């Protein structure tokens, strides 16, 4: 993946996950800085994170497929899924952020060669380390 010759990637026409490097990216607090208004139960999209526009531009130039994976739903946000989806689309257009598609998870987890998420923990056969970190950060089950 990362070591593939550039020409091969650039010459690809279709953006099929089986043949194209696919980068799956979280939206809230990864692509965009957001602010959660607890009283209004509303998630406000502020601005793009530093460097995201340039990264997306590079990925696009190389022909990678970029999928925004967002699980925004009614329980956390005022409005319905369509409203949340449109807010993402408008934001991406307004700030000239290039992507291929938005996936809301209705068909399950999208395939990715890379997953970029502010809440992610990289798994490297290190379950003990991961368990200890989570338990240390959360001594009880309350968030
Ligand atoms: Mg996030």
Q: Can you walk me through this structure?
A:
The protein has about 140 residues and is of the alpha/beta class. It has a single domain (about 15-135), classed as 3-Layer(aba) Sandwich (Rossmann fold). Helices cover about 30% and strands about 20% of the residues. The chain contains four helices and six strands. The chain has helices spanning about 5-10, 50-60, 80-95, 125-135, and strands at about 20-25, 30-35, 40-50, 65-70, 100-105, 115. A four-stranded parallel β-sheet has the order 5-4-1-6, covered by helices on one side. A two-stranded antiparallel ribbon has the order 2-3. A hairpin with a 4-residue loop joins strand 2 and strand 3. The model is unreliable at about 1-10 (pLDDT under 50). Bound molecules: magnesium ion.
What does the secondary structure layout of this molecule look like, with pairings?
Elements: H1 6-10, E1 22-26, E2 32-37, E3 42-48, H2 52-61, E4 65-69, H3 81-94, E5 101-103, E6 114-116, H4 127-137
Bound molecules: magnesium ion.
Key traits:
globular; alpha/beta; binds magnesium ion; two-stranded antiparallel sheet; disordered N terminus; Rossmann fold; 143 residues
Number of helices: 4
What is the SS-derived class?
alpha/beta
User: Low-confidence parts, pLDDT < 50 over ≥5 residues?
Assistant: 1-12
The CATH topology is Rossmann fold
**Major β-sheet strand ordering:** 5-4-1-6
Order of helices and strands: HEEEHEHEEH
Radius of gyration: 17 Å
Strand content: 15-25%
Mean pLDDT: 86
Based on Cα principal axes, name the global outline. Answer: globular
CATH class: Alpha Beta
Largest sheet report: 4 strands, parallel
Task: Kindly report the oligomeric state of this protein.
Answer: single chain
Distance between the termini: 37 Å
CATH architecture: 3-Layer(aba) Sandwich
Q: What is bound: which ligands?
A: magnesium ion
What percentage of residues falls in helices of 4 or more residues?
Answer: 25-40%
């Amino acid at each position: 993946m990362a070591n593939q010759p550039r020409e091969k990637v650039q010459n690809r026409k279709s953006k099929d996950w089986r043949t194209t490097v696919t980068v799956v990216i979280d939206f809230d607090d990864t692509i965009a800085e957001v602010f959660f208004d607890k009283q209004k139960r509303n998630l406000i999209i502020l601005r793009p994170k530093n460097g995201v526009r340039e990264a997306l531009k590079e990925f696009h130039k190389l022909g990678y497929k970029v999928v925004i994976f967002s699980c925004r739903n009614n329980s956390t946000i005022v409005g319905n899924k369509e409203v949340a989806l449109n807010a993402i689309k408008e934001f991406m257009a307004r700030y000239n952020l290039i992507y291929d598609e938005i996936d809301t998870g209705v068909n399950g987890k999208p395939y990715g060669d890379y997953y970029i998420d502010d809440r992610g923990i990289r798994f490297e056969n290190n379950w003990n380390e991961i368990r200890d970190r989570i338990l240390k950060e959360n001594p009880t089950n309350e968030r």
